[in-house]
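Lecture 7 notes: from sequence to structure.

We start with a single chain of 369 residues. Read the sequence below before looking at the structure.
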Amino acid sequence: MSELKQFFLFCSGIDQNILKECPTDENKYMGIGATVFFTGVLAFFSSAYALFTVFDSWIAAVLFGVVWGLMIFNLDRYIVSSMKSKRGFFGNLGMALPRLALAILLALVISKPLELKIFEKEINAELLVMEQEKYKQQEDRIQERYTPQIMAYEAEIERLQTEIDTKTQARDEKALAALQEADGSGGSQIRNMGPIYRAKKIEADKAQVELDHTLAVNQPQIQEKSLAITELKTKVQEEITALERGAFGGLAARTEALARLGTQSEAIYWASLFIMLLFVAVETAPILVKLISPRSPYDHLIAEHEQQYELAAKEIMDVRRSEVLNRIKEKTEVGLHQTKADIKHRTAEIDAELQDKLDRLRNGGYMLE
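Now the structure, written as tokens:
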């Protein structure tokens, strides 16, 4: 139990030597450390599942999951340990806001893969629908490439067939009129094969000739275009068959499936939202506890400890600054005195030279050079 307590206190990022002087704060920081630890554990499971959907390998998922979990654990521990209680709520709030923002971001990242796992069965069912939609879109794109050409052939076949049907109908009408004229059931109502019948028979024969000509011209074209349509449809089917039907169910697809389920079902939408809020609450709990808690004995001791270091450092800096200033002053005064002495010495030398020249002039010993 003592080792577990020490571990959770380590997770909270506090100075355990200082905490020994105020044991009443142990439970508070044990709770904070436990929260930080279990957040790292949840991050491990979350990332391991997410990476398994990417690599399809438990070994890679576990290895990357451990790295991710340790990174989140270390980051949470740093966020909590770097937040020190100050005097005043607004001062603490200003210090907590960026940490809260980072904690919320981490909670969103951790919660999403776990949401995917919780709704895995519903997501798998939705993935089947999405997969069929995806394949249908691929098939539609293939058919769209050939549909205009097929429709053009079909329109041409329809035009040619309409022309044949028109000629056939005209031939049938004229043949029927000649037959009715011959048996007296139509036309002049006189049963005979006289000149009226012969005239109608000529028109019927002429219509038959036109029909035969149209059939001779149009039928080969209809067969040709029908064969072209068959070839195009065969090509479409071959391309559809050759489509890659790879695995559909990666991380992005599952996230999209969960979003679609949320729009289709209010129950799933609210459940997903509350799961996310739960992780946000867990991730931000240590920061909120520190924010709303009054200054504890540990906070006072750590502030005093840091102040001692601050004052000692300031004292050392002041001493060093004084020593530097004294050395600068000493060198400045020595240099000034040396300069004055040099000037005085040089002035004496110049005066001696001038006096020597004057003496020589007076004695008449000065000569121009």
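The mean pLDDT is 80. Keep this in mind for problem set 3.
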